[in-house]
Each structure stands twice: as structure tokens, then as C-alpha cells.
Design a protein that fits this description.
2 copies of one chain form a homodimer. With 267 residues, chain A is of the alpha/beta class. Chain A is built from 7 helices and 9 strands, in the order ββββαβααβαβαβαβα. In chain A, strands 1-2-3-5-4-6-7-8-9 form a 9-stranded mixed β-sheet, with helices on both faces. Chain A is globular, with a radius of gyration of 18 Å. The first copy, chain A, starts with a strand and ends in a 27-residue tail after the last helix. At the A-B interface, helix 6, strand 9 and helix 7 of A face helix 6, strand 9 and helix 7 of B.
């Protein structure tokens, strides 16, 4: 991992660009480092395009005491495309423009190779990020392509909680993987999401094996997630990614560690 | 309205028992009075039985700067029963014990007369409570029999926001009333609620006419609502029941008025 840029966004958040095996990424750390880490997922539109929304989420997480990091997805931004993904994207565009249903084979071709490539990269990034002195404790995964979050939650034991956005196509095989997810989940659903199958999203929520899972559905389309939903997600992580664990001496003495009962402002 | 008892729960919450036209009720006011009011609904099990859960909710609301009040429901506690309701309750018990579906006519007989009686009583209580110097501003309705909340939100213009618990039988005619609800809604659903039809609850959420509505579904049975859900509801009311309105001079100067962006702790 090599840092390529560094800037203070304000006196509370340090933003650093990095590359890891040729993959660009961004790390945001709060003043209260060492801090637990949340990996920020995003749709495959390129880091540059997604930057404004990512930095807003990074600031929200930093306010709750979390470091955040994100990686360019395979086939996005400056990273090389692969023919099968380009073909799947073209097939998807045609189906959507024709108003015909998007077939399973298109969804599989679009999502599964992306998951297969992105998840090991996220794990390699975790190896590098958790070795930094700024980062410590359990890891969260938040948002982006929900199938990447599902696979990562299944195969990566360092993920302690996941906030998922039920707003993208989900291959049928991911429902089986979803049953094997056991970490606490916070699932966001936009009730009127134009391109999303609401019933499939509800079925997926039902399929997750986690004992603790919350579905937060808001009226509005794909891009209409209210600000309060971001705050709810940050509080979800604050409840579940406590570090050091409460049983260790000294827990509760840091500013960003609070007990659930003490959260939520003036009380 | 006549006060019948008074005790300080701590230095922040004053609890007063009252009667209004022979109906017993309880009013909780925070130290920061005058405060906006939330009417606390509850299942028809009697105020005495419900007291521990009600007082916990009242404390949570007081911490967010809200006064709360609750009334004994018609046919509950010491209040006279009526034969049709007793019959409906017996029919319901028989259906549940036999494992047979609960027919529409049982649900209608159980819920509609209760709604018809409880809603005017809640409105009369609002008249009396809003005349008190401790209470001011818009009113919220929270929890309890969801059909009472729906009717009240439709017919009572002083209700500015409602937090509803999708955990009880809903007559089919209430779906039509739900379409006429326009205030911001926060709907709680226990995903594994034994006695509740999950699909009906999702259909009801979909039916509500409100532009701003949130569904918060958590794993667990009817009685397993997590503490964080209560905190989420309190924050929902804090976002929507601002008083005095933000446009009036002096808004923001009281401790319990905050802008959405300023909520959620350390930032």
C-alpha cells in the first residue's frame, strides 16, 4: 500500500489517496485514531464520479469515530474492463430500454464476476489497512453493490457488521449465500426505487441468517435516501462495532464509545 | 380534566394522573415545559398492566423534550365492557386456539367499535391537554392499536406526525383510511411477530398516503422490539414535531429543538 495524496478536510478528518497492487483507493481517518474501520461500498461508476457521495458518508462516519476506506471496483474508473462485463452491461441497457424484464443470465453475468473479483481485493485492502497504526478493531461494510457485501460478510471473519443498500440486481445464488450471513445487518430499502424489485428485496432481507437484522425502508426513489437514513446507519455501526470490546478495561473512556442507552443526544 | 396524583420520577419528569369525563389517564411532562405532546397508544390490556412499558416510553420521549399522555381505552382496565367486544374477544380466542384464520368479521367487531369510541376520547383529551400551560405545539401519536392511530391521523388536524406499530389486526376498511393519511409516518414492524400477518403489514405501509414514511422492521417477535427502535422513534418525532416552527424567531434557542443535521451526537 502506497499513499499518493494527503489532505485535511477539516481539523477532524484526514483524507489520503492510496494504491494497493495498482488499485486506487481512499482512506479517511478521524482525529480520534486509532479508530475502527468501515469499508465504503459504491456502485460501479468509478471513484471519481462517486467521490462527492463517498466523502459525505466518510464525514458522517468520522463524526461517529470511524475510519472509512474505499477501493476502485474491478472494471470501473481507470481500471481495465473485461469483455463479458461489457457485454452484460450492454444486454442490461437493451433490456431496460425495451422495458423487458432483466433475465437471470444478465444479472449473473453482470454481478457474479464483479463479486468474485472485488471481494478478494477488499480482503487484501483489509490486510493492509488493519496494519496501519490509525486503524484498529472490528470492521464494518457499508453500502454499494449488495452482493459484494453479502459475499464479504460470509467469507471474511473480520467483518463485524454490515449496512447494505437493497438497490441493485441480486443473482439468485446470492440468496443462498445470504442465509449464511450471521453478522448484525442494517438493510436500507428505497420503497419506490424505480429499477429495483421491492418484493425481491424483502425476500432477500428475510433470507439473511443474521439474528439481528433491521430493514429501514423510506419512501422515495433510488437516489432519494433521506439524510436521517445515513445517521441511522452510522448509529447502527456505533452500536455494533465497539472497540475495544466493552469487557476490556478502559472501554467507554474514549469519546466515540458510548453505551446504547447513552446514545441519541440529550438524556 | 382533574389531576388525581402527582409525583416526580426524577428531576426531569413529572408524572400526573388525571381523569377526564370519568376516563383515567396519565400525563408526563419534562423539565423543559412548555413541550410538544405525544399521545402514547397501547394495546387494550389496561393502563395498570401497561404502566411499566408506558413509563419507559414516557422517559425516552421526555429525554427528547416531549410531554406524553395516555388514556385508558374503552372497555379496558376499570372501564365498562360492552357485550359485542366481549363476544369478538371470545371469537378471536377460539379462532387462535383452533389455529384457524381470524375472519374479517371478527377483526371488524374487535377493532372498529374500539376505534369509533377511542378516537373522540383522544380528541377530547387533546382539547384539555393543549389548554395546559405545560403543553404546546404540534402533537404526535405513538404506538398502540394501529387502527386508532390511522383514524386519528385522518380526522385530527392537530396530529403532526405518527409512529405506528404494525402489530395488531387491521380491518380491511382501515386500508382505505390509510390512503388518506398524509402526516409523516414512522412504522415499526416486528419481522417475526407470531400473531401478525407480515404481508398485510407491508401492504398497509404501502397504502399510507404520506409522502414521508419510514418502515423500520426488526427481527424478533411481538414483544422483542429492540431499545434502539424506541430511540429511532423518539428521533423521528424530534425531526417532525418542531415547535415553535423553525421559521419563527427564537426557534433553535431551546435545548430540545435541533436541526436534523445537528442530531446524532458528536459532530
Amino acid at each position: 500500500m502506497r499513499f499518493t495524496s494527503e489532505q485535511h478536510l477539516d481539523d477532524r478528518v484526514l483524507e489520503r489517496g492510496f494504491t494497493l497492487g495498482g488499485i486506487p483507493g481512499i482512506l479517511w481517518t478521524p482525529a480520534s485514531a486509532p479508530a475502527p474501520l468501515i469499508l465504503l461500498g459504491h456502485p460501479p461508476l468509478g471513484l471519481r464520479t462517486m467521490y462527492p457521495r463517498l466523502v459525505a458518508r466518510a464525514r458522517q462516519c468520522a463524526a461517529e469515530g470511524f475510519a472509512t476506506a474505499t477501493l476502485e471496483l474491478p472494471g470501473s474508473g481507470e481500471r481495465p474492463r473485461w469483455p463479458a462485463a461489457e457485454q452484460a452491461r450492454a444486454d442490461l441497457r437493451r433490456a431496460v430500454e425495451a422495458g423487458s424484464p432483466v433475465g437471470d443470465e444478465i444479472v449473473d453475468a453482470l454481478v457474479l464476476p464483479l463479486v468474485d473479483r472485488a471481494v478478494p481485493e477488499a480482503q487484501a485492502a483489509l490486510d493492509a489497512l488493519l496494519a496501519l497504526p490509525d486503524i484498529g478493531g472490528p470492521v464494518g461494510y457499508s453500502g454499494g453493490v449488495i452482493s459484494i457485501g453479502i459475499r464479504l460478510a460470509v467469507v471474511e471473519p473480520r467483518i463485524g457488521a454490515a449496512g447494505l443498500f437493497a438497490g441493485s440486481f441480486v443473482p439468485r445464488s446470492m440468496f443462498e449465500e445470504a442465509r449464511r450471513v450471521t453478522v448484525p445487518l442494517h438493510v436500507l430499502l428505497q420503497w419506490d426505487d424505480e429499477g429495483n424489485d421491492r418484493q425481491a428485496a424483502l425476500d432477500l432481507f428475510d433470507a439473511f441468517g443474521s439474528r439481528e437484522k433491521t430493514l429501514l425502508a423510506n419512501t422515495g426513489g433510488h437516489a432519494g435516501v433521506p439524510q436521517s437514513a445515513g445517521e441511522d446507519a452510522a448509529r447502527f455501526f456505533a452500536r455494533h462495532l465497539r472497540w475495544p470490546p466493552p469487557s476490556r478495561p478502559g472501554a467507554g473512556s474514549r469519546g466515540w464509545i458510548t453505551t446504547p442507552g447513552a446514545r441519541g443526544g440529550r438524556r
